[in-house]
Amino acid sequence: MRHIHDSSPTCVIESPYAGDIERNTTYARRCMRNAIVEFNEAHFASHLLYTQPTILDDTITEERADGITCGFIWAKHANTIAFYIDYGFSPGMIKALERCVNLITNRPKIFFRRIGTNENPTWQEPTSGQ
User: Which pLDDT value is given to residue 1?
Assistant: First the structure.
């Protein structure tokens, strides 16, 4: 495993959230680990942070929009945006991609990544001690 350090690239993680929230949350956590272990990235996943209890309610349109906007603001400052696409693109991911492509200054590098789904894994849970 590489180690995160002060000069590690910053990354915003985009993966599905709405719909099958339990499956998508598990997948997003795997994506976060992948960004650290495989790419040495210091990342931010707004859809996991802002949807925590008592922060924002993803089922309320205005609050969902606020969470998406907060993620867009962070994305303007990231080196990369990683779209994890094993489950395809959600509407929120499409908005994020459109927003990234239209940035005039500080446009981040955009990557499309696959790590495998729980149904078709290419990634293994770490065992204790790893």
Answer: 53
